[in-house]
Amino acid sequence: MKFGLFERVAAAFRREPPMHPVERQMAKRWIKQRLLVVFPHLRNNPRALEQAYRELSLEVQHGEEEGEAEAVFEMTFPEER
Question: Does 4 map to a domain?
Answer without folding.
Answer: no
